[in-house]
Amino acid sequence: MPQNTSHNRRQLLASRPHGAPTTENFRLETTALPKASDGQLLLRTVYLSLDPYMRGRMSDAPSYSAPVELGEVMTGGAVSKVVESQHADFKPGDWVVASTGWQDYSAVDARNVQKLQGEALKHPSLGLGVLGMPGFTAFMGLLDIGQPKAGETVVVAAATGPVGSLVGQIAKIKGCKVIGIAGGPDKCRYAVEHFGFDRCLDHHNGLLAEQLKHACPDGIDVYFENVGGAVFDAVLPLLNTKARIPVCGLISRYNATSLPQGEDRLPLLAATLLRKRIRMQGFIISLDYAHRYSEFAQQMGEWFAADKIKFREDIVDGLENAPQAFIGLLEGKNFGKLVVRVGNDQD
Amino acid sequence: MPQNTSHNRRQLLASRPHGAPTTENFRLETTALPKASDGQLLLRTVYLSLDPYMRGRMSDAPSYSAPVELGEVMTGGAVSKVVESQHADFKPGDWVVASTGWQDYSAVDARNVQKLQGEALKHPSLGLGVLGMPGFTAFMGLLDIGQPKAGETVVVAAATGPVGSLVGQIAKIKGCKVIGIAGGPDKCRYAVEHFGFDRCLDHHNGLLAEQLKHACPDGIDVYFENVGGAVFDAVLPLLNTKARIPVCGLISRYNATSLPQGEDRLPLLAATLLRKRIRMQGFIISLDYAHRYSEFAQQMGEWFAADKIKFREDIVDGLENAPQAFIGLLEGKNFGKLVVRVGNDQD
Hints:
2 copies of one chain form a homodimer. By secondary structure, chain A is of the alpha/beta class. Chain A is 26% helix and 26% strand. In chain A, strand 8, helix 3 and strand 9 form a beta-alpha-beta unit. Chain A is globular and about 60 Å long.
């Protein structure tokens, strides 16, 4: 059953995953349409964003944000159209972005909703990608924490994803040498040819540490951390004195159920930070930088209008396919920003 | 043979330690007095500073600073008296501080020598402690990276050492709650009664993790890292969102020859930095903050003159005893800033 005007389909968290999520952890349910009360909007989801952080919300381990409760709608940002407005600032047909979850319809307070503006109106799904949260993450993490300087070497993984691809492009705008890491030769070629990375290394070929060393003869000044795991292991010995490591994600570990066995390298990391006088800093874009959104919107709008920013989307049709697409995201199967087209985007 | 006016005694690095240094790694040698050439000063060492970083200089592993070569004089900061001056700005009898090493006499370029000033002239050995490099380390690491705010909880180990004791006192001046960690009940009592820590926990009693949790009911906002090891392990789960971790030393690991076996907690540290949006940053005071020395000198001078800063020194007599004292420093045997009185401080 596709999206229709009489019912609301919702993807619920049916059970908590142990390790990698499976489709059994989700349940598609059909209910009545919600109603917008005073000050609220009834929204119809057009594009649903799928992002790695959602894996954390499926678990009840302590985190910066409360987990999704069992039987509740999966959380997530979406681009929607206003169906009905009980607020003077919005009218039916407006394109908006809000955290409305994995469902067809939602009734939300207008104050929690942003209208799409500028370039995003020409291509609404980008409000979930380079012109939205992932773009904001790349922009602030790289510029505010990473502080790249012309001539420095910047390394970022998931190089064709929405964050990694933008980190690379902004670093190029700033005059840096940019080395990407991605899974497979197609993605690597794309990162160089389409996004303008100087090089992109395939972490599937088992030679990452050696190839990264070769690709970074002057060491690494900024490592934008969004994956962790083997990529970080390859980066660690190459970090330069005074390197900066913004940490926005660790996708390689999100399905992990235990720590690796072997040497405890926590002291090695601490000693590296000390000896090389490195700054390593985690951030959550919505919590740390919400007050600086306008800086991002203005600069990214300018770059985008000047055709300095490329993007790639991986669009999956149908809310019913969201769980499988999300499972694939955690395995690196997407190629570009993963978006679910939940409903008609033409009317 | 004590210090005399006709010979120079020097402690050389005889061999590189594997693990903890022993007295065999040092060799005391007697040579002729060096001569000061044009622009130089002949200095007589009065107080030699012993500091944990010197352990790193004994090894030839890659570090931020070149190692001491075998057969060379051990490096180190010292407070000296000018014996002979070939530079207009200095005259015999002046008190100075310079990196002159473990020896009685040195001939050094005047531009690498600082005159003791202000409060330090009343108590010259403090130019190696609270009014010198350790004080500067505590001041900049805590204030610039740690950024403590009134009401926050600050934790620091080696609480009766020159860095830890000053971190605690500055944090108290800034209105923080300060929990110290030290080895043994005498040091812990002293940290509270003399330095004004709110509490000080004994890491010898095997209950540190539990006691620290109890002592920090609101979590930890700033952990000033100077020891690593079991203290960091106890701190890690208690760190608050947006905590700051300046890293100036990791003394507990300086004699380590391998990483601990077991779980690899590097990913745990990275995940903690991400989830709690923590900033962890290594620094080397002489390399990162030399340009801000005057800020420290002025503020510390004010606090010191107003009797807001307490200190404790652990003075060992005789250059011949420096190796054993240094070995004890790495084992936590000193109680206060460890200084070797190399020569007469009265004439």
